[in-house]
Every structure is written in C-alpha cells, then in structure tokens.
Amino acid sequence: MGRLVVIEGLDGAGKRTLAEALTRALHEAGASVAAHAFPRYGRSVHADLVREALHSGHGDLGGSVYGMGLLYALDRRDAAGDIRADLASHDVVLLDRYVASNAAYQAARLHQDAEGEVVGWVRELEIERFGLPVPDTQLLLRVPFEVAADRALSRAGSEAGRERDVFESDDALQRRCAAVYDQLAAASWLSPWHPVDGVSTVDTTALAGALLATPAVH
Questions:
Q1: Rounded CA gap, 37 and 19, in Å?
Q2: Which CATH number fits domain 3-213: 3.40.50.970, 1.10.10.10, 3.40.50.800, 3.40.50.300?
Q3: What is the pTM of this model?
Q4: What are the extents of the domains in the chain?
Q5: Model confidence pLDDT, tens digit, residues 68-94
Q6: CA–CA separation, 26 vs 158, rounded Å?
Q7: C-beta separation of 218 from 191 below 8 A
Q8: Sign of torsion, CA 218 22 36 86?
Q9: pLDDT of 90-125, one tens digit each?
C-alpha cells in the first residue's frame, strides 16, 4: 500500500503549487505518485453543486453548514474507490484538501473549535460511515492570513473561472478557519500533521524524503 498524504491550508495558501512541486520531487526520488484535488469541480456533480452554491446558486443551500458539508463528503465518497486503487499501485497518493478541510471550514462557519460538534460529525460521516481512507500524513501549509487573502485575490484576477467565492471573500471566516486548522494539527486529528512554512521556500526534496521514509500504516 502507498502512503496517503494530504495538503491542507487556507484558500490562497499555495496548496496546488506545493502539490505540483512535491510531485516533481517525489518523482525525482524514484517514487510513483497519483494526485487528486478536492472538490473535484467538473468531474463530480456534488462538487459542481458546491461551486454553484458558493456563487449564490440553489437558493439558501450555501447558507446550510451541514448541507454543504454533506456535499463535500459525497464528493469524496465517490472518489474513494479511485483513491484506494491508487494506493494499491503507487508509492504516494497526494491529495489537495481532504476530510480536514470539511471539518475546519464547517467548524469555522459555526464559530466552533476543533472539539466542536460539527468536527465530530464530519469524522463520523466521512471516515466511519463512508469509510474513506485515513491519511498517513497531513501537511498543514501555514501562511499568514493576509498573505493567503492577497494570493486568493490575485488568483481571482488572473485566472479564468477562479473568481473568489463566498468563503474565500469572508476574511473573518478565513481567520477562524486558520485557528481550527492549528487545533486539528495540534491534536493529530485522524493522523500525524506536519506544519510547512508557506512563506519561505519549501525544501520539497527533503520533504519528499521524509514522506518516503515514513511507512504507510493506514
């Protein structure tokens, strides 16, 4: 079985950039890598409903914490078979966002912390009920909130189809989400977490080596 590695962090933290650089470093180290990003816009009806709701579609759906959380979870449930197949045939399966994103954002929306009810609900739904594979390692890409916000705004202005949604535009929500992420990492929620400085240049060669030195346990 391969290692299931997840990159988490705020909108604009640079998760996609890190995933691409880490994939290159893993390949250079001789490892086979499969990568997925959530939500799977354009591939999953549940993800597309999420995107539409985040841009004021479907009435009051976007305002429902548990409704949105369920759509995120269903998107991952539908991808679970692909993830398991990739784990059976690759050294590393690298995910840009996963279950912890749902926990962090829904808790932040409800002004709860990592020990709040909705975090427990996400775990019960996605891990216990849907049976999603548990990560071996979760990387928390940490950047100051202001840096992440500036990056998200710049991305929205330069990339077609990347307009900021209601979550990305809510500064207070992003700040609360960062706090919940820190709490999840400190509690080793689901698996060990490793902080990554998203402002400094990341030594992806060293990071790839550390990931490959860690045995898959889930």
A1: 9
A2: 3.40.50.300
A3: 0.92
A4: 3-213
A5: 999 999 999 999 999 999 999 999 999
A6: 29
A7: yes
A8: negative
A9: 999 999 999 999 999 999 999 999 999 999 999 999
